[in-house]
Amino acid sequence: MGLLTGKTALVTGAARGIGKAIALKFAAEGANVAFTDLVIDENGQATEAEIAAFGVKAKGYASNAADFAQTEEVVKQVKEDFGSIDILVNNAGITKDGLMLRMTEAQWDAVIAVNLKSAFNFIHACTPIMMRQKGGSIINMASVVGVHGNAGQCNYSASKAGMIALAKSIAQEMGAKGIRANAIAPGFIETAMTAALSDDVRAEWCKKIPLRRGGTPEDVANVALFLASDLSSYVSGQVIQIDGGMNM
Ligand code: NAI
Predict the structure, then answer these.
(1) pLDDT digits (tens, 9 = 90+) for 212-237
(2) Subunit details for this protein (predicted)?
(3) The overall pTM is greater than 0.85
């Protein structure tokens, strides 16, 4: 028996990166896993196959998480295909960095839509299902910059602070229905999102991290597993920083 045997998880933006690591971790613990991404190309198909290799049901759905109508449609489809949705991970996210005075309206709008509105869309569509099932676990992917802010990332930081407040509000609104909501705040994690950073920037970051390394997607997935499973049955409305001790 795995920690998630018999549960269905829906992870957004999981064709690669942290979302993929979470999907695989959940599958390894027995969950059936539905995931979304903008497109399900050979990358997404490979992810689907890797999840299925754990002997669970797996399916990737092409959908833009920022789009309300597409989200309603995809959640309806997942419910039809899988029968239930017990765990929702709002992971899809992008960066469009720039200093405030140089930031365009388009940069602001895109990041808020993909990083924050997407979570509203999925929570709105999934919680009626979770309420009927009398329980569920929602995990919002925030970031340490959503707690502490970051120069050059006002759009991204604001979206991630919003993810934290959204999780806390849902924890309060829906706790009586057995629904828990928490946020994860990763620090510097080695993925495509951070691969673009120069060696100098990377070295600067590492100096500030007591554990002296960047995190791995699996470091994040382990905490997501804790929050998704009954190991955290009395944990709700919390933010867990996964940052090697960078922020205390
Ligand atoms: P990534 O760029 O490797 O993966 C993000 C995934 O989301 C991609 O597969 C992408 O296609 C998908 N996606 C983008 N826009 C989408 C949309 N509109 N609809 C559906 N899917 C969409 O990024 P990574 O590093 O795996 O990040 C995952 C989450 O973790 C993001 O929310 C990110 O902000 C957050 N995070 C990452 C950190 C890091 O250091 N890598 C640190 C803190 C938070």
Answers:
(1) 999 999 999 999 999 999 999 999 99
(2) Homotetramer.
(3) yes
